[in-house]
Amino acid sequence: MDTSTLTRLFRSIKWSPEDDIVKIAYNIISREKEKWHKNVADSLLRILEANLAKKNRENSMSPLVFNTPFNTRSNIPLVTKIDREALRHDMILSQEIEEKFLRIEREFVARDRLLMNGLKPRQKIMLYWPPGCGKSMGAERLAWDIGLPFLRVNFETIVSSFLGESLANLRKVFDQIKDYPCVLLLDEFDFIAKSRDNKQDVGEMSRIVNVMLNLLEDYS
């Protein structure tokens, strides 16, 4: 099959990654690579994954049930859900940083193909740099591009002066998202992720950090 026909065929693929036609398409790309047709293979891969990303965004617009967890004592939401239309996603980045974001997005689009090969797309990402550099905006951009709902944790409502309540609030958040695909932003994570060796801490903050780390480790 000539390159022009292959390109037209791949542009018509709009099914989900689980469909047989998508698996066949990935096999075609692999065969093109084996023939040393690298440019053709790369072009077909970009077309396929762009279509799959678009399909995923369309699917994400169907209503997903999310029960917002609340602080029981104050009745304030523990997370904030930001509508897709309000997400900031137009970013001007250096080529190096842009490529890192694109790699995360491509991994998500190709997650089923990765799983078929015994690999997993990254699910936990740390964005670090001085305040105001665009970390939160970067998280919103990821949610926009891969088509998932965006949630931001409100640490000021999670942490409570009452013993044990902060831990319960944390667990509420992770219990709600375990079956709800989303981008969860732990904004201002250093609010609780302080050193566990802090001599001035009475113990509650250390327990919060430990529980948070365990919840992150178990999250998949």
Characterise the protein shown here:
The protein is mainly alpha-helical. The protein has 2 domains: 3-60, no CATH class; 79-218, P-loop containing nucleotide triphosphate hydrolases (Rossmann fold), CATH 3.40.50.300. Helix content is 51%, strand content 5%. The chain has 9 helices and 3 strands, in the order H-H-H-E-H-H-H-E-H-H-E-H. It has helices at 3-11, 20-34, 38-60, 95-109, 111-116, 135-146, 155-158, 165-177, 204-218, and strands spanning 79-82, 150-153, 183-185. A 3-stranded mixed beta sheet has the order 1-2-3, covered by helices on one side. The mean pLDDT is 82. InterPro entries: AAA_ATPase_domain, ATPase_AAA_core, P-loop_NTPase. Residues 125-219 form the ATPase AAA-type core domain.
